[in-house]
Structures are given as structure tokens and as C-alpha cells.
Amino acid sequence: MSKRIDVDDLNVYYSDFLAVEGVSMNIEPKAITALIGPSGCGKSTFLRTLNRMHEVIPGARVTGKATLDGEDLYGPQVDPVAVRRHIGMVFQRPNPFPTMSIADNVLAGVRLNSKRLSKSQAEETVETSLRGANLWNEVKDRLDRPGSSLSGGQQQRLCIARAIAVKPDVLLMDEPCSALDPISTLAIEDLMHELKSDYTIVIVTHNMQQAARVSDRTAFFNIAGTGKPGKLIEMDDTTVMFSSPREKATEDYISGRFG
Amino acid sequence: MNLLAARWFEFVATGAGIIILVILAAVAAFLIWEATPALTADISELQKISWFNADSFLAFVAPLIFGTLLASLLALLVAVPLAVSIALFISHYAPRKFAGPLGYVIDLLAAIPSVVYGLWGALWLAPVIDPVFRWLTSFLGFIPLFADYQPPAKNIMTASLVLAVMILPIITAVSREVFLQTPRLHEEAALALGATRWELVRMAVFPFGRSGVISAAMLGLGRALGETMAVLMILSPGTLFSFFLLKPGQHQTIAANIASKFPEASGVSVSVLIATGLALFVITLLVNMAARWIVSRRSDFSGAN
Q1: DSSP A12
Q2: Which of A32, A189, A206, B18 could disulfide-pair with A201, CB 3.0 to 4.6 Å?
């Protein structure tokens, strides 16, 4: 559990178009790393390269190096399916499987890994995962109801429960609160604080207050203009980034002068 | 002005909806009206008809209903797995430049007239499939389903295979459209959990497309139930409740029976044929209601909310 990711000179292409250029960063274990920056700066694209989800888009490819505790994520024998089983992901909009019950949603990933699950094992996994996602008390009486019967914030926590049920090494979160109301957002942020002790978390957010509240390290991405590639401008401890950033662009963005 | 356009649209749409109901009611009324003489006639009256060899109208129509259902269900059994596989291949496996033409070819199958399918089945498929049936009956003949094959292959199995080819395009086309509609969110959810392509299909595509595939199968079943020419040209008819799928002279379908008897019919014999048509109408209604029920049973979990 909880591994580090090291990225060295990573470029992301959509066919011939260079979308993200030359990213190098170290993502620490048991910490929350926030990726911030204006729309279109490539932070979500970069996040998706960490569990190879970008490969879903035809023509998307990567050059450079990304390792998980020293193991190459893009090695020739590495199956993207295996990468995604180690590096979980939570999406912008909650996406529980609508045809599955709450319990089955939690177990969806677990069932992929180990087909046979005894009833008691399954119940235990459901409970620990839902407790881990701070959702257990709200749903324990209706585990057989469809996941889509929950509110948006609950659905998102269900998705987090589903992601942590497989005990991943890293949890990627792509704007996990952007579709949620402030109270649900607070619940997710509290949850991230608790999850930090077990997982490496990388979160993309448009909300700078959120980055300042939850993250230990912050990386600022920017784009020179449309058609230009997104770049990592700087990365530092969150307190440093929000008080005395080295780059002018970072300061402008954080102080709300653009973006 | 806009309000007027909205009114007009409402009027046209409502009218179109009502017309469907009116047509359905008119067909039902016609069938019931024309069938009544046969349903109320004395049995001795009916038995004067040369081909009426039963003790009651019910005893006459029952084997035809059996034959119709058997032929259609066999066709569905063959066509649905094949159609779903093809649809899945086109929507989720095939490279894009290959998927388009393949879908087009499948759609073309639907444009072939049924009489051509009948010719194809009787003149080409029957001799070609003969060795397969011979093999089945000699090695699996201990199973009653496959016992007693007699060439030529003018049996219900051949008829059902041709029906399966005929209903393949509609089931494939509808399933493909439904599979393509699978929300990207659900597909990504599955992939992010580390699902392989097949697991993605099982977790996201099939559950989402389930009701659509059932609807597609029902459309196909509707066509198979009513198909006339192909069955008429291929099947050597009989009126038994028989599960010998490879034996000729065992089964007949309602539609093919009407087509073969109608040219010579007059008076009460026309009424008997229309009464069998009424039975077919009722079967189709029941089948569709059953399908609706299956789809609605788990509507909580359909993802429509």
C-alpha cells in the first residue's frame, strides 16, 4: 500500500499534437498532491497518464518515464489493466454502476481480481470499504438498493469506497468535488484527510481553496496559449506555493489575477 | 407565432399517436368480426372443409400455434447470441474502418425479400446442411430432438435457420445502437477498476444494453412469428405436437398455413383461416407484454434515473 510515483520528462501526445510537455515530478507516498491550473492546461490529461487511462482515447500516447516505487508503468510487458488495478481512480462525475446494488458496486473491482469471494469476506469488504469512505452509517440498511438511488455526494463516496475496496497503491482523483454541493465537498475533503494515512493521493482541482485545504504538495500547470502544450510550471509544499511561489505565473493564478 | 407552431406540433404528434391506436383497434375488430363465423359455427360445418381434420377449432389451431412458436423460438435461440456478438464486435472490438462496412452489410441482409430467403433455404441451404443433419441424427439421434432425420432437409430446423438469418439484421442493428450508447462514464468506471475489454463489456455494456437487447429480440421474434413465404417454401407441413426437429411433415406455422390455404378458400373456410390469424395476433400481443414485463421488472436498476 501507498507507493511513490516518479515521473521524468513525460510528454503526452494526441496523435501528432503535443498536449503536455516535459513533466517531471515526484509524488510522495502517504501525502496528498494537488494539481492546479487553468482549464486546458493538461492537468487532467497528465493525471490520466499515471494509470494509463488516457489510452482509452484513440491516438493518445506518452513518451518519457513514469515509475511506481521504481517499477516502470510503461514497460513493454506491463499490461495497462494491471496498472489500473494498482492505481485507482475517482472521476469528476460520480459513476456508480446503475445496474448494481450499493454492495455490488463496492465489490465490482474486488470481483475482477479474485473471482470467488465467500459471503463473509464480501460482507467484510463492503463494510470496511464503506466505513473507509464515511458512507457506512448512511447506507448500511439499504445495501441491496441501486447505487443510483443515492445523492450525488453519497454516490461519489460510493465510488471512493469502490476504488479503495481493491486496496490500491495510489488513488487518483479527477476533480472529485466539482459536481457536488459544499456540504458533500466537505465530506469528501474530510475523507481525503483520513485516507492520506493509507494511500498516496493525487487530486486535480479547479478550486484553489480546496488545494490549499487538503494537499501537502501542490503542482501548478499552465499553458502558453491555445494549441501550445501544457507544462508543469512549479511544484512545492502547498504552504510555500500559496505564500511565496517562485514563479510569477503561479502567483498570478493563485491570487486570482487570471484563470 | 412560436406558440402556434408549438400547438401545431402538439396536434400532429398527438394525431400520429392516436392513428396507431386506431389502426390497431381496426385490425383487431376486423379479425374478431371475420373470425366469429368460424368460432361460432357447428363442428360438422367446419369438418366439411377438406383440410379441416380436427374435432374442434381449438384442436385445429393448437398445433399451428405450437409450430409457429417452435419455429420462432428456435430462430431466436440461434439469432440472438449471434446478433449480440456481431453487435458487440462492431461497437467495441472492431477497428473503426472495419466496423462501418460490416454494419452496412448486416443492414443489407434486411433488404432481401423473404421469398428470396425461401428460395435460398429450399434450394441451397437444404442440400448443403443435409450432411450436418445426417451426422446429428446418427451421433446424437438418441436425443429425441435430433432423431429420425429424413432427407431432404425440409424440416423445421432448416426453416428456423433461415428465419434466424432473416431476423439477424434487426436484432444486430438495434443491439449495436444500444451498445454504442453506453455512457462513457460507466465504461471509464470499469476500466479504472482494471477491467479487461470483456470485463468492461460485462460490467458496463451488457447491463446498460439489456433492455435494448430484449426489445431487439422482440422485434426479431415479431418478424419470425409472422414470416410466411420462407417457411411456406421450405417446410414440409404437418400438424403434430412434435419435438422431432429434423423430421419432415411434423410442423406448420399459422402464417404459412394461411398462405397455402387461402387461394382455394371460400365461405367459412376463409373465416377459419382468419380465426387462426386472430390467434397469431393474440400471441404477438402476449409476447410483447411479456417482454415489457421483463424489462420493467428491474427498472430501478436500469440506470434511467
Answers
A1: E
A2: A32
| Residue B111: CATH number of its domain | 1.10.3720.10
From A165, which residue of chain B is nearest by alpha-carbon distance? B193
Q: Where are the domains of chain A?
A: 5-254
Q: Which of B191, B195, B301 lies closest to A99 in CB terms?
A: B301
Residue B25 lies in a domain: no
Domains contained in chain B, number: 1
Query: Cβ B303–A99 below 8 Å, yes or no?
Result: yes
B147-178 residue pLDDT tens: 778 888 888 999 999 999 999 999 999 999 99
Task: Give me the residues of chain A with pLDDT under 50, please.
Answer: 259
- CA dist B272 → A124, A247, B164 (Å): 65, 91, 29
Looking at CA atoms only, how far is residue B94 from chain A in angstroms? 13
Q: Are strands A217-223 and A200-204 parallel, antiparallel or unpaired?
A: unpaired
Residue-wise DSSP of chain B: -HHHHHHHHHHHHHHHHHHHHHHHHHHHHHHHHHHHHHHHS-HHHHTTSTT--SSSHHHHHHHHHHHHHHHHHHHHHHHHHHHHHHHHIIIIIS-HHHHHHHHHHHHHHTTS-HHHHHHIIIIIIHHHHHHHHHHHHHHSTTSGGG----SS--SHHHHHHHHHHHHHHHHHHHHHHHHHTS-HHHHHHHHHTT--HHHHIIIIIHHHHHHHHHHHHHHHHHHHHH--HHHHHH----------TT-SSS---HHHHHHHHGGG--THHHHHHHHHHHHHHHHHHHHHHHHHHHHHHTGGGSS--
Residue B301 and residue A112: Cβ atoms within 8 Å? no
Which three three-digit cell numbers place residue B171? 436484432
B54 vs A32 pLDDT, higher one: A32
**Residue-wise pLDDT tens digits, B78-116:** 999 999 999 999 998 888 788 888 888 888 888 888 899
Q: Which three cell numbers mark B115?
A: 421469398
The answer to the question of residue B233 being in a domain is yes
CB pair distance less than 8 Å for A98 and B193: no
The predicted structure's pLDDT at residue B300: 58
Q: Please check whether the domain covering A5-254 is classified as CATH 3.30.43.10.
A: no
